[in-house]
């Protein structure tokens, strides 16, 4: 993924999550992330985990789009 599309995706996250991911990616520790966001340092790992999960579930503009709900066949074959 290019840096530009990564930045575009980060901009789609809630601000606190985007800031947390950017600070962490820049090499800042949990204490810096927590201070910057006004959250307890103990909560930073969970915030980062949630932010990563949300980030990875965002649509990727550079990827081929596939609709997970559209299919012409069932799990057991046609017509199921």
Report what the structure shows.
The structure is a single chain. This protein has a domain at 3-56: Arc Repressor Mutant, subunit A, CATH 1.10.10. Helix content is 51%, strand content 0%. It has four helices and no strands. The chain has helices at residues 3-11, 15-25, 30-37, 44-56. Helix 2 packs across helix 4 (44-56). The N and C termini lie far apart (37 Å).
How are the secondary structure elements laid out?
Blueprint: H1 3-11, H2 15-25, H3 30-37, H4 44-56
Helix pairs in contact: 2-3, 2-4
What structural keywords apply?
80 residues; mainly alpha; Arc Repressor Mutant, subunit A; 4 helices; elongated
Summarize this entry quickly.
The protein has 80 residues and is mostly helical. The protein is 51% helix and 0% strand. It has a domain at 3-56: Orthogonal Bundle (Arc Repressor Mutant, subunit A).
CATH topology of the domain at 3-56: Arc Repressor Mutant, subunit A
CATH architectural arrangement of the domain at 3-56: Orthogonal Bundle
Please give the alpha-carbon distance between the first and last residues. 37 Å
The helix content is: 40-55%
What is the CATH class name of the domain at 3-56? Mainly Alpha
Which secondary-structure class do the elements indicate?
mainly alpha
**What global shape is seen?**
elongated
